[in-house]
């Protein structure tokens, strides 16, 4: 039996995960769902956000379906998601973006770069070490090339004119792309940020370092119209975590208006990862049919609640579409 660890988390996390679970039910996905209470709410209640035994449970499951977790700006609090990504070595963050005009995937390195965790915080000076390794660059480039080989082209996004660490990243990605026979080019990150707004259709698969990927993917979500639309997979050799790219959205939490689409699409990515391509395509088609009908939450200008938007998707699935 498949086993999936389910983390709702904080804020709108549990609200959108409820939607994802309903949609998984409606495509007949069978698995042992293992709920885990981790996050900031638990930290406030118990002083622990994520226990070692939660990580053990995650390891024993095939994968994790994840909502969102609040990270307070408290230096004593370690980001739960960063700990999970590091502990399970989820090095490849795959973020697809779809609309009638856009079809691109950002492949973000997930374990090093400016998120290395190596920091010296003084009163007058603070440093964060940006770590780029050949091995880390090679494996993220390999993941991106594998994706690009089934598509059109790979664009390597970097800042090697200023950051010498990015020369290593760029060269390593180029080597991988050449070896894989993948058509590729490269672009400075500031130019990429500009072009993503003006000419997003120019891009196909983009590979980049941790912080650049974090920022460019929220930018891309803005181009599409809402963070609430976008999903992601965090992949390692042995583990995987699927999550919407948005956070816990405390400004709208508890009001029943969170857009469930990012979480639902994350569940669709999980179905694909399990080899259930037909079911995954059905979910995406149902999402698109509801978006086209305007059955959307207020972030997209609609008047649906989370529950109504989710019901529209489930009904489209049970009707077999459209
Ligand atoms: P956020 O993504 O939670 O929200 C940014 C804006 O987008 C807000 O106005 C919010 O209402 C809106 N939004 C986000 N998701 C939405 C959805 N599904 N439907 C409708 N509107 C949506 O980012 P923010 O406000 O910077 O961070 C809030 C908390 O979430 C922080 O504690 C942050 O650390 C955490 N966070 C967690 C992430 C994760 O668990 N993967 C990722 C990003 C932030
Ligand atoms: Mg982010």
Explain briefly what this protein structure is.
The chain has helices at residues 13-26, 40-46, 52-60, 80-87, 134-149, 165-180, 189-198, 210-224, 261-273, 277-292, 306-318; strands at 3-9, 32-35, 63-68, 92-98, 103-109, 119-121, 126-128, 154-158, 184-188, 205-208, 231-235, 240-244. The protein is α/β, with parallel strands linked by helices and 322 residues long.
Describe the fold and architecture.
The strands form 2 sheets. This protein has a 10-stranded mixed sheet, sandwiched between helices. Strands 6-7 form a two-stranded antiparallel ribbon. With 322 residues, it is of the alpha/beta class. The protein folds into 2 domains: 1-90 and 236-322, Isopropylmalate Dehydrogenase, CATH 3.40.718; 92-222, Isopropylmalate Dehydrogenase. The protein contains 11 helices and 12 strands. A hairpin with a 4-residue loop joins strand 4 (92-98) and strand 5. Bound molecules: 1,4-dihydronicotinamide adenine dinucleotide (NAI) and magnesium ion. Magnesium ion binds at residues 214, 218.
């Amino acid at each position: 039996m498949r086993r999936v660890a389910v983390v709702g988390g904080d804020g709108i996390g549990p609200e959108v995960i409820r939607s994802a679970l309903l949609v998984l039910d409606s495509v007949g996905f069978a698995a042992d769902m293992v709920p885990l209470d981790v996050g900031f709410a638990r930290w406030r209640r118990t002083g622990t956000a994520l226990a070692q035994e939660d990580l053990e449970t995650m390891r024993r499951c095939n994968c994790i379906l994840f909502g969102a977790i609040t990270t307070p700006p408290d230096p004593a609090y370690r980001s739960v998601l960063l700990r999970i990504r590091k502990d399970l070595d989820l090095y490849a963050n795959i973020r697809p973006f779809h609309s009638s005009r856009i079809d691109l995937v950002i492949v973000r390195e997930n374990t090093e770069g400016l998120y290395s965790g190596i920091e010296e915080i003084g009163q007058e000076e603070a440093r964060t070490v940006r770590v780029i390794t050949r091995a880390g660059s090679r494996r993220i480039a390999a993941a991106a090339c594998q994706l690009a080989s089934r598509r059109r082209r790979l664009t390597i996004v970097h800042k090697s004119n200023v950051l010498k660490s990015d020369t290593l990243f760029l060269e390593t990605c180029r080597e991988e792309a050449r070896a894989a026979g993948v058509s590729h080019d490269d672009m400075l990150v500031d130019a990429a940020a500009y072009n993503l707004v003006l000419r997003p259709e120019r891009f196909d698969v983009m590979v980049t370092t941790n912080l650049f990927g974090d920022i460019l993917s929220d930018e891309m979500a803005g181009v599409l119209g809402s963070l609430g639309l976008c999903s992601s997979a965090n992949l390692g050799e042995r583990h995987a975590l699927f999550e919407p790219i948005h956070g816990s959205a405390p400004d709208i939490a508890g009001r029943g208006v969170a857009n469930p689409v990012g979480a639902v699409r994350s569940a669709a990515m999980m179905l694909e990862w399990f080899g259930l391509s037909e079911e995954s395509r059905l979910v995406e088609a149902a999402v698109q049919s509801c978006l086209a009908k305007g059955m959307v939450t207020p972030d997209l200008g609609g008047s649906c609640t989370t529950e109504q938007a989710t019901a529209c998707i489930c009904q489209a699935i049970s009707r077999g579409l459209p």
